[in-house]
What we know:
The chain is α/β, with parallel strands linked by helices. It has a single domain, classed as TIM Barrel (Alpha-Beta Barrel). Helices cover about 50% and strands about 15% of the residues. It has an 8-stranded parallel barrel, surrounded by 7 helices. Helix 4 (about 80-85) runs parallel beside helix 5. It starts with 6 loop residues before the first helix and ends with a helix. The structure holds 3-hydroxypyruvic acid and magnesium ion. Magnesium ion binds near residues 95, 151, 174 and 176. 3-hydroxypyruvic acid binds near residues 151, 175 and 176.
Amino acid sequence: MPSNPSLLDRLKTGSPLLAAWCGLPEPTIPGLLAREAFDAVVIDMQHGAVDFAAAVRAIPLIAAAAKPAVIRVPVGEFATASRFLDAGASGVIAPMINTVEDARRFASFMKFPPLGERSWGPHGALSLTGLQPGEYFKIANGLSLALAMVETREALDIIDDILAVPGIDGIFIGPADLSIGLSQGKEVNPASAAVESALGYALARTRVAGKVAGIYAASGERASELAHKGFHLVSIASDAALMRAGAHAALKAARA
Length: 256
Ligand code: 3PY
Ligand code: MG
């Protein structure tokens, strides 16, 4: 049985999903966070220190908690996106998708023909889903969520075109980079007024396209605001940030 046959359907029809965000180079951490009440776990290979082997090892640990694993690959590493689908990831977030060509290339590595050009070899995915190759092939494109990151002024300007690319299931906003771009390099402020109005615009365009929108939130409070705003997938803080916050709170209490 697929561990998660329809992450896209859940995003489209259910309440917002809250994801853990992991960048430490140790697969046990996403495996353990998957046991908490997160709906999904993201492994960040763009800014995290996780290498390919560690990220692949985390996927069955996350699946053992019946949660979907989503991987953010490094910029431009679309071939790596296919390899994570082969390993059983439920989705991939591709950073810095700034042109329609970027979006097309990303989609082509995420989806089998005729939609894309993904090559066959889903060894981990077959184990985790329990499907036979022919069964997996029939539904694989629907199992593999492709989220294109919109986090620059250029991407925002062509958001309709990115959303229109066949095989792109939705967008994922990087509010920090977006704030840098929208302020023309003057500040990094993921909650700036300019970002706030861009979020409303991006959500509206995503709804018109009938696709889904995810976003990164630095805290639980911010995640709640963004979920209420209408984002379908909201990731919260990071493994390192949660550890640091826990350490600060425990030490503050101990020294009180
Ligand atoms: C951003 O805010 O730019 C991100 O990519 C989230 O990590
Ligand atoms: Mg970013």
